[in-house]
Amino acid sequence: MTNRFSHLPDPVDPSRLVVEVPASPDDRPAPEPAPPAAAPELVAATQVAQGSGAPRTMRSSQWTAGLLIAGVPIGVLVVVAVVQIALGG
Question: 3-class DSSP state for residue 70?
């Protein structure tokens, strides 16, 4: 037990660690070509039009978490204010 770390383990053959993965064709649709750079209004309008059908960036769970994080402290402050008004007046 005392000589447990006295020697290094056997070297590992790197060829045993390589995994062969067959290539697959890329079947994603190609993006539309960008409009000419001479018309910046057209570039902006095209980008806005393409982004309008995209999924929303904020998920409903993010909205729920945001409302919970903002709502709980505000609710606590309202309850404390109501209690102070009721006891003080």
Answer: helix
